[in-house]
Structure formats: structure tokens, C-alpha cells
């Protein structure tokens, strides 16, 4: 699918089409349909993968609810999903590192490898990136897809297919930790205890962060964060007038200066909290993108030489994610709270569950 799977005539279900040729298509606002599609030919450097596990991401929900996410707009039916793992079923003639039967986690973005960003090693910034379920590229919530072999990473024996699918959201946390240079002397503040905030906690702990404090508006999410390794939690509000008092609470919970803040939400209030709470000479990493435009206190932060960095997706993270999972330095299994099969009824229920939030952290399909 990542290489251009196509809908069958008119997208109408055909009783003669085998079940393995089916995918979950986003065809309109709040409308998903399991429909047939045609796979592209397996090229010499490609593999065909039977997909076994797919997680629902917040961007998938955005597309379902509004047919757009950030600047990307769905203009024609598109297969949804990008957090995935499966079993290799066919390999291209030039593929040497994989064989049929291998269990793999798939990195969902295909970069051009020719532009300045790719040649400079920052392929995640490639302007011609073809990314699963980012219009007009089809996604991976399908029985099988064709994908470049070099973007399919063999799973260690003790890592499950579900954990393999979790490498995608985990990669965001790992990339953020690399951008912020997290290490054993770093005190980390994580703002937002949603899925990305939680994988940021797990990643910061794996990178050896000295102390991790997480803030959120929800007690249940804070409790989960504590169980995953956060040293302390601070409940905050959405009221900007509470910011000064909350920054004071964060300082007490940290028991020292905040070296790095991860804003995993991306709202005016959360970014203002990050900039205000971070010590002079520290760093703020903007991970979440809740608001396209924010009004934040940059001047006071600049006067304290607080560096601000952003992240966009990830690069070269799958090997490290799999090593963290293999060694047990990171356990993503507690994040998988709901599981669904691959039927019309279940895909609708799964997306409704994910959109409601509440106690749903990661909703996973088992195909």
C-alpha cells in the first residue's frame, strides 16, 4: 500500500476478492469501509508483508473526523493507518536481509534519498516523503502491503508483533530524546500524559534521565505515567492564570532545575509552561502540535537563553527502539489498552474508542 495500492472498481465489495486483499478505507467524514484494493508489484528491493498488528494514532482520528491533519487534506478515498508490524510473505529479487516468515516492524515513511535533507542525514525532513496514510499515500490498515525492504526491521524473538507496531509512536519519544540530548544528568519535564507523552517518559528513562516529572489535567493519566517510571506528577489546569503557581509546583516536584521540557501537547498554555519552567540555559523540545500558531512568552525565555527545538517524526530510530524492547529497557505493553479485530463493525468501534480517549491509550488492531 505504501507504494500505491489502488481501489478496485468503484470501491464496491466483490464477493470473489479474497479476504487478504482488503483494507480499511477512509471514504468520508466519520466513514470507514473495508474494501478491496490492488497491491503494486513487488519490486526487486521490496517485500510483501502480511500485516498483523496496527495501532491507531491521533492523526488517524483527525483524518477520520475532519478529513485533514495539519496541512494535509484527504481529497479522495485513502487507506488509513501507519503504526504496523507483520510477517514477510514475499521478497524482491535483490532483498538479502529478509526471507518469507520473518516478523518485521515497518517504518512508514519512504524518502527520496536524493534531496539535500536526505543526503544530509535528515531524511525525516524530505520534501518528497511518502508516508503511510498521509494524503495521497495509502496506509497500512490492510491484510497486506508492499514496502521497501530497508524500511522493514526484523523483530527479535522476544518482541511481539504488537510491540513491533508500537515502534512507530515510541520512535517519536526516542527522536525527541536524541534532539534534546537526554542523558544521566538530565532532569526532564514532560507536559501531557497522552500516548506521546507516555512514550516520552519511557524513552527519557531508557536514555538515563536523572529525574522525570510529568504534568497533565487528568488524574488517571498521571497515575499511568507514574506506573511507567515518572518520578513525580503534577496536576495542572487549562487556565493560563494558574501558570505561575503550577510552575512553582513543578519546581518543587523536580527538586531542582528543569534541564529539558518536552511539550507533548502544543497549546499556548503548555508551551508557556515549558518555557517558564525550564532553567536558564535549558532546552524546550516541542513535540506536540496542537495549535498551528501559538502566542507564548519567548522574550523572557530568550533572556534566559532557553533553547527551543522542534521535532518532525523521526529518523533512524527503529533499531534502537527494538533494542530497548529486546533488552526490557522499555516495556510498551501497558500502553496497549484496547484490541480489536479487522471487521467493519470492529474498525468503527476501535476508532470510536480511540476518539473518546478516557482510559484508551493505544488501540490496536489484530489482523
TrEMBL record:
Q: Report the CDD domains cross-referenced here.
A: sorbitol_DH
Concerning PROSITE patterns, the annotation shows: ADH_ZINC
Q: Tell me the keywords, alphabetical order.
A: Metal-binding, NAD, Oxidoreductase, Zinc
The record's section on InterPro entries has: ADH-like_C (IPR013149), ADH-like_N (IPR013154), ADH_Zn_CS (IPR002328), ER (IPR020843), GroES-like_sf (IPR011032), NAD(P)-bd_dom_sf (IPR036291), SDH-like (IPR045306)
- Enzyme's top EC category: oxidoreductase
Q: Where is the signal peptide?
A: none
Q: Which cofactor does it need?
A: Zn(2+)
Per the record, the domain of life is: Eukaryota
GO terms for MF: L-iditol 2-dehydrogenase (NAD+) activity; zinc ion binding
Show the Pfam families listed in the entry. Answer: ADH_N, ADH_zinc_N
- Domain Enoyl reductase (ER) residue range list: 28-365
Q: What is its EC number?
A: 1.1.1.14
The record's comment on protein family reads: Belongs to the zinc-containing alcohol dehydrogenase family.
- This protein is called what? NAD-dependent sorbitol dehydrogenase
The organism is Prunus salicina var. cordata
